[in-house]
Amino acid sequence: MGPVGIEEPHFTVALVGGRRFRERCLARYLEDSGIRITTGAVANLRDSLAAQDGAIDLVVIDTGDHTCSDASIAPILACVSEVLPGVPLVVVSDREDWAAVCDALCHAVRAYFPSSLDPEILVETLRFVQRGGTFIPLEVLINAPVHRNEPSGAGARRTEVPRLTPSEQRVLDLLSKGKPNKAIARELDIEETTVKVHVRRIMKKLHAANRTQAALVAQQMAGAVA
């Protein structure tokens, strides 16, 4: 089955890392799908990214079989975040274990894409992230470990869940569906600035590094108290 066409290509993806063969194959596929591609050479990553002069909308980092905290990957993530602050990061990885996914989330990655998935799904993922969404494969979520501590008394397990206000819970429910702040504000009929305040409070209460991790932590807690 051929690449998925994008009717009106309007964003640019920078590919960073990965072996040359994989990089070229991925670049060719995405270009055939209508996405503009530029590559960031690891050897002079800072200069190659800065030379794009704000034209990069997404960064895809191929981590291979390494985690984002690996000594070969962490400096790349740090450099991208410094040179392109606010630009969404998407990780393509050969690993599908929960530890690797959580590690990526702690590095503010917006989407985690296992290399075992169909490349057509990657195209849709990039479009989704570019529009403000987040992506974690359903299979990874299903297999995620849920820590179930035995309660010391009746109801003890439930009291371990941080208390969210009704408004925060409604925001978290929509956040878990990958909706951006603007869409959440529209659906709840509140100001976008109010949504941002709720998101910050939710992240603080759940001890989450970013909005995606907050949604995942909430899902795990919900499973633990069910």
Which descriptors would you attach to this protein?
Arc Repressor Mutant, subunit A; disordered N terminus; 226 residues; 11 helices; alpha/beta
By CATH reckoning, the class of the largest domain would read Alpha Beta
What order do the strands of the largest sheet run in, or round the barrel if closed?
Answer: 2-1-3-4-5
Distance between the termini: 42 Å
Based on CA atoms alone, the radius of gyration comes out at: 19 Å
Find the CATH topology of the largest domain: Rossmann fold
Mean pLDDT: 79
Summarize the structure.
This protein has two domains: 12-142, Rossmann fold (3-Layer(aba) Sandwich); 156-225, Winged helix-like DNA-binding domain superfamily/Winged helix DNA-binding domain (Arc Repressor Mutant, subunit A, Orthogonal Bundle). 47% of the residues lie in helices and 12% in strands. It has eleven helices and five strands.
Mind explaining what this structure looks like?
The chain is an alpha/beta fold and 226 residues long. It has 2 domains: 12-142, Response regulator (Rossmann fold, 3-Layer(aba) Sandwich); 156-225, Winged helix-like DNA-binding domain superfamily/Winged helix DNA-binding domain (Arc Repressor Mutant, subunit A), CATH 1.10.10.10. The protein is built from 11 helices and 5 strands, in the order βαβαβαβαβααααααα. It has a 5-stranded parallel beta sheet, sandwiched between helices. Helix 4 (98-106) links the parallel strand 4 (89-93) and strand 5.
